[in-house]
Every structure is written in structure tokens, then in C-alpha cells.
Design goal:
The structure holds 2 protein chains of 2 kinds. By secondary structure, chain A is an all-beta fold. Chain A is built from no helices and 11 strands. In chain A, strands 2, 4, 5, 6, 9, 10 and 11 form a 7-stranded mixed sheet that branches. The termini of chain A are far apart. Chain B is mostly beta strands. In chain B, the strands form 2 sheets. Chain B has a 5-stranded mixed sheet with strand order 1-9-8-3-4, with no helix packed on it. In chain B, strands 2-7-6-5 form a 4-stranded antiparallel sheet, with no helix packed on it. Chain B is globular, with a radius of gyration of 13 Å. The chains are: A mainly beta, B mainly beta. Chains A and B meet through strand 5, strand 9 and strand 10 of A and strand 4 of B.
Chain lengths: ~120, ~110
């Protein structure tokens, strides 16, 4: 089966510019996650969707970050305006709501590496 | 979710077993131990999970101590492609909650 798709793979912008990342989850996966991974650290959740509703956005810096998942499939994460500390890899993941084996495995995309100069 | 502690790095000779430890002394009765790994420039990948019994799949084995305060991930015959950061995560099963990643263990398999 096709995996989680993300684009672009790399992006370089100047501070105060805006940027958007796109994610297409695995078909049939109702739950979608955006994680931020700063160099040398583990991924940190930014926002979690179930279908097109937000389940958890408590760690999303809402003054500059926004995300949407229209129609409950693809999702877009936006940063406006970007700061130097936003340089990181942005990972999208998806999972089933209910799994017969109950493991709720998350499938990750390759990520988008953002560099803010 | 309970906090986990892992060594920052480990080396292993190719073809030998890699044993990656994890401490989770505050784990609750309804929390499972999950292992994910992240190969350089890729997203994390699920390896295995368990509650209290030892588990084995095609990738690895998971040994959980009887008191559940620690566990060990075993890669029986490590290859160069197993070089990655390995994350031990404790999470309540039966839900699609977020994964809370620590810093993980950088495993380097040496030729």
C-alpha cells in the first residue's frame, strides 16, 4: 500500500516569510498527526486530527502555526511568519481509529526539512 | 504517559544481537511499551509493542521485566541497515493518542 506522502521534502526560507507543508495520509486512516522534530531531539506533536476535527492542538504555537484538514483527507500545515527556531523537520503521520490488533501503529511520512535563515 | 530513560548511544557488531534497554519505572497498569526506530532522513517506523508478556515479530523481540519497570528490545542479528535511533515509548493502548518521543538511543552497527 502507498505510504504517507509529504511535500516539499526541503524548504529554505528567510525569517518572517510564510511556508506551507502538505500531507496525504494512507487511504482510510482517519487520524492524522503533525510532529516537529528539531535536530538531535525526538519528534514532538504539534496537532492531531480525527477526520477533519482537531483532537489535540495544545502544543501548536497558534500565533504563527495553523493547520487544516479539509474533507478529512489531506492536510496542510502553515507557518506565518517563520522564526529561526522553526528550523526543523516536520513529520506527518496517520493511523486507523480502530484497529483489530489494537496497536494503533502510526505510519510516518519522510518529512519536510525546513531551514529558516 | 510515563517517562522513559534510554542510553544515548550504543554500538553493535554486525551479525551479533543488539540489546537496547529502556527504563520506565512509573509505568501504569494500562500502559504499553512501544518501540519505534528512525533511520537517518526517514520518518519513525513501528517495530513492536507489548504489555507484560514477551513479544516477538519478524523485526525484533521485546522482553519486559516482571515488574514492568524496564524492557529490552532485541535485534537478534543486527545488520548495517539497523543503524538508527531507537525510541522506547510508553502509551495507553486502545487509543490513537499521540506518541511522546524522548531522545532515544542511537544504535550504530559496525561492520
Amino acid at each position: 500500500e502507498a505510504g504517507v506522502a509529504q511535500s516539499p521534502r526541503y524548504k529554505i526560507i528567510e525569517k518572517r516569510q510564510s511556508v506551507a507543508f502538505w500531507c496525504n495520509p494512507i487511504s482510510g486512516h482517519a487520524t492524522l498527526y503533525w510532529y516537529q522534530q528539531i535536530l538531535g531531539q525526538g519528534p514532538k506533536l504539534l496537532i492531531q486530527f480525527q477526520n477533519n476535527g482537531v483532537v489535540d492542538d495544545s502544543q501548536l504555537p497558534k500565533d504563527r502555526f495553523s493547520a487544516e484538514r479539509l474533507k478529512g483527507v489531506d492536510s496542510t500545515l502553515k507557518i506565518q511568519p517563520a522564526k529561526l527556531e522553526d528550523s526543523a523537520v516536520y513529520l506527518c503521520a496517520s493511523s486507523l481509529i480502530a484497529a483489530r490488533d489494537k496497536r494503533y501503529e502510526q505510519y510516518f511520512g519522510p518529512g519536510t526539512r525546513l531551514t529558516v535563515t | 504517559d510515563a517517562k522513559t530513560t534510554q542510553p544515548p548511544s550504543m554500538d553493535c557488531a554486525e551479525g551479533r544481537a543488539a540489546n537496547l534497554p529502556c527504563n520506565h519505572s512509573t509505568i501504569s497498569g494500562n500502559e504499553y511499551v512501544y518501540w519505534y526506530r528512525q533511520i537517518h532522513s526517514q520518518g519513525p517506523q513501528y517495530i513492536i509493542h507489548g504489555l507484560k508478556n514477551n513479544e516477538t515479530n519478524e523485526m525484533a523481540s521485546l522482553i519486559i521485566t516482571e515488574d514492568r519497570k524496564s524492557s529490552t528490545l532485541i535485534l537478534p542479528h543486527a545488520t548495517l541497515r539497523d543503524t538508527a535511533v531507537y525510541y522506547c515509548i510508553v502509551r495507553v493502548a486502545g487509543s490513537a493518542r499521540q506518541l511522546t518521543f524522548g531522545s532515544g538511543t542511537q544504535l550504530t552497527v559496525l561492520p
